Amino acid sequence: MAAPFVSGIVGMMRYEQPAMNCYQIKNLMITGADQRAVLSGKVKSSARVNAYNGVTLAKTTAVDPFKPGYLMSVSPHDRGLASSLASRGGGCGTIGVVGREFWRGVSFQDKLRQIIVVLSLILLPVFVVRSLRKPETGRHQRRFERYQINSSVSFKIGDQELTGSVRTISVGGSDLNTDALIEQGSTLTMVIASPDGKSRIEVQGHIVWSQEQKRYGIAFDNVTDAVRSQIEGWSASLQKAS
């Protein structure tokens, strides 16, 4: 658990001094750490990080551009490399040097082959998940068939009464076209006219999507059998919506 705490403190220090390099931040963090006898021999600094001291030192210390050099001769097949570097306190920059040593003397074809293998292992789970996932089209995502309609609608949100139009409808919902701005998730009561204007239905619903704050998607709530029957009757004379 030490790593995320240390990383968070480093982030706060870099926020205060963005130009400060990692070597100086490391030294300031160790300088501001609290010495603890119980940590002696267990961690290199024998101390516990102190976020307040670290951030304060980052604010008040001048930026030092110095970076120590690294002269290393390592084998990419040495399994004891990490332990030896840890005992020497390699610090920031070690990874870059090890990486350069690892690729030294390797042909371009071998580099390319290893990169392809690594990328394949990384991407393999993605392809497996995508292949197992069932394809979903707009038709499969809808529970009910939608039909084209061009009807007027009056609706009420709270104490506000507004008007608009409906261009598609199903027994599960409809669209709503209006100049009013409505928040997604809002609940409303709608009175929708039939295609011939001779009858109306009243239904409650809520906003589930919007397009440019002009067209909204409504999901009906608790549709009664009478309302369902009326919508199904209207649909008999309507064309299916794409």
Could you list some keywords that capture this structure?
single chain, 242 residues, alpha+beta, Thrombin, subunit H, two-stranded antiparallel ribbon, 8 helices, 38% helix, elongated
How would you characterize the overall build of this protein?
The protein has 242 residues and is an alpha+beta fold. It has three domains: 1-67, no CATH class; 69-104, no CATH class; 143-235, predicted glycosyltransferase like domains (Thrombin, subunit H), CATH 2.40.10. It contains eight helices and eight strands. It has a six-stranded antiparallel β-barrel. Helix 1 (2-16) runs parallel beside helix 3 (51-60).
Biggest sheet: strands side by side, in what order? 3-4-5-8-7-6
- At CATH level 2, the architecture of the largest domain is Beta Barrel
Whole-angstrom Rg: 33 Å
The percent range for strand residues is 15-25%
| Distance between the ends | 54 Å
Describe this structure in a few short sentences.
By secondary structure, the protein is of the alpha+beta class. The chain contains eight helices and eight strands; from the N terminus they run ααββαααααββββββα.
Layout of strands and helices, then pairs:
Elements: H1 2-16, H2 22-31, E1 34-35, E2 47-48, H3 51-60, H4 81-88, H5 94-103, H6 108-132, H7 138-141, E3 147-157, E4 160-170, E5 173-177, E6 187-193, E7 200-211, E8 215-221, H8 225-235
Antiparallel strand pairs: 1-2, 3-4, 3-6, 4-5, 5-8, 6-7, 7-8
Helix pairs in contact: 1-3, 2-3
